[in-house]
Every structure is written in C-alpha cells, then in structure tokens.
Amino acid sequence: MLFNRYNTVIDIGARYVKAVRGRQLGKLKYQVYNYKLVDSPSDTLFKADVGEDVEIPATFGRSINQLVKEADCAKDNVLLLFPDYGFLVNMATIPSKASDEEKHELAKQEIVTLLPSDANIADWCIEKRAIGDLHANSLVLIAAIRRPNVLMVGTEVQNRGPNPITIDMGLLNAINIFHDYLVSSENLEKNIGVLNFGHEASSLAIYKQGKLTTIHTRMIGAGSELSLLVGGRAFTKRIMEHFKLSEDEAEEYKKNEVFFLPEFVPEQDKIANYQVIKPIFGELVKGLFTITEHYVARFREFKVDEVILTGGGANFSNIDVVLGGHLNTQVKQGADIVSIVDGAQNELSAAEKNILTPALGAFCRD
C-alpha cells in the first residue's frame, strides 16, 4: 500500500513473526541476506470480522522483543506485513470510456459497498490503485484496513525499537516474486492464480494478460461476509482433536505422516490420515472453486489455467497435487518456480521459500 524506504520487513503471521532482508538478483532469482523468525502468540491479533479492533496479548510484545534482538533491527525502518484477512479488498471494474469524474464517483460507490454498513469511513485507511484495462474496463484495486488496528500494531512494534514507515498485505507482495513468470509471453493469455496459503487463512489473486484482475482475502457466496478461506491452522486443529495432540505435536505429525499421495489417484481416499482432515480440505476446495467460478463468469473466461501455491501452508506435503485434482487445474509449488539463495549463495529449502516469499516480495517493488 503506502511506499517508502525501508531496509527490513517484519511479517506478522499467525504462525511466525518474521524479520527479512533481501533483494532481487534477476528474473525469478532472489537473495535473502538474513532472516529470523519467532513463534507468533497463540492468540491471533486480527479478527475474522475486520470491523473489530485487534487484541494485542502481552505475548506479542515478547515475540517482537525476541525478533528485534535476534534480527538486530532495533534501529531499522521497517515495512509491516499484516495478515491478508486483516484487509477488505475488491477489484472494481469501471468502464474505460467513463469520464474522470464518473470514475471517481464509481470508485466511491465501490468503497461504500466494500466497508461494513455501519462503518465510519474516518476509521479506515483506504487505498485505490489503478491496475490497467481489461475487456474495455479499467481495473481499480481498492484495499481497506481499520485505522486503529494499524496504529495499535504499529505502536507496539515501534515501542520495541524499529520504525514502521509503511504497511501492506502479504499476498500483494508474494505476487511480486512471481511477476516475471506471470508476465512471460507464454503465460500472458493464461488465467493464473496465486494462492497465499497462510496459517490462519488463505487468499487468492488471479492474473490475466500480465494484470491483477481478481483478489480475495475471504470466501464469497458462503452466506457470511466474515467467512475466511481455510488456512493451515484448521488442519492442525482437526489433527489435534482427532489424535489428542498438542499444537506442536500436531504440526510435527503434519510434517512427518502421509496425508496426500504424490499422484491424484483413487487410492487417495484410502489414506486414513486424509479421512481425518478431509472435511477441512473440502472447505478449502469449495472456497477456491467458488472464487474461480465467479472469476470465470465475471470475465467470461473458460477456466483458471493454473494456480501457484505459496505461503507456509504450501509445505503440507503433496497438497498441491490433490488440490489440483479437485480443482481440475494445475497447481504448482511456487518454490519450484523461483530460485532464492541465502547470503552465502546457498539455495533455500522449499519450506523456507514458501514461508519467506511474501516478505521477500516487498523488496521487489518498483
């Protein structure tokens, strides 16, 4: 959203709080000078209802203190990445032939529609960004976040030393990492999604002709504007409940046991662990299918050709294979598309790439 000079990104995730410094080396090639991550508080800061104020537990301050100390960023200007679901977003389509005054009025109407019905517009930070033209329409990205939430979290970080000078959402920065892939000549006519599979919730953007055409930080058509797209934590909770495990034990179980097969085959349904998390997986598939079908109908497209999977949730082994099978589209691991090296030029693991992609993308902006 707002842009200024910063040398560190602090990514406030639901699983980890991360401090990242990096740069782009070339097309689809990046370097992370260094990064540190600490566990996030068990209590989430941001609520599913974006109209509610954040609640900052004492453990959040301790996590930030630990991160600042380990990352040595107490004197840095920082960009804060907030969870995607902390924002309300919409891609407005405004007739390209409309006058500037008409476009302004139509954008104002879109903002009113986007915010809760009882919202005081002065309580919201709102940004509009012209994306470009598609099918005789101008695309305008509108994003809104509650001003008290920005100030409360920003002050909490600033009290620990770093100087927050701008904020943004993870998905818009994750997209930057894949920009050269999305605008390549062989992909321009494809409809390509980027799925930021987070811990608390997921978010999806779709590209066509090198332009961001659709973005969703929550479900649509689910009967509730507050419904979030399933994130990794929902799988963890289901495993905790079924196997009577702690959260840490359930996370380890996810890493070490088989839930998804490496091929989309009928035998998938015979995997006992898959049956445990199948209802949660079904919710994820349903949410993504609804968004992609809405996109196809809105822009009169045939299908979404592929989806790039990134974020910490992408580390759930082989979930991309089974997800692609159910969505009837190709799902690619974002970690396989890009090269990300550390300060010593060693390639990062796929798991590290997925976790760091949103924060690293903040260093790839024009």
Q: What characteristic shape results from the CA principal axes?
A: globular
Supply the helix-strand structural class.
alpha/beta
Strand order in space, largest sheet: 8-4-1-2-3-15
Helix content: 25-40%
How does this structure look, described?
The chain is of the alpha/beta class. The protein is built from ten helices and 15 strands. A six-stranded mixed sheet has the order 8-4-1-2-3-15, sandwiched between helices. Strand 13 (306-310), helix 9 (319-327) and strand 14 (330-333) form a beta-alpha-beta unit. Helix 4 (170-177) crosses helix 10 and helix 6 runs antiparallel to helix 8 (272-299).
Short description:
This protein has helices at 58-71, 100-114, 147-158, 170-177, 179-182, 232-243, 247-256, 272-299, 319-327, 350-361, and strands spanning 8-12, 16-26, 29-39, 77-82, 88-95, 124-134, 137-146, 163-169, 192-197, 201-208, 211-216, 229-230, 306-310, 330-333, 339-341. The chain has 366 residues and is an alpha/beta fold. It starts with 7 loop residues before the first strand and ends in a 5-residue tail after the last helix.
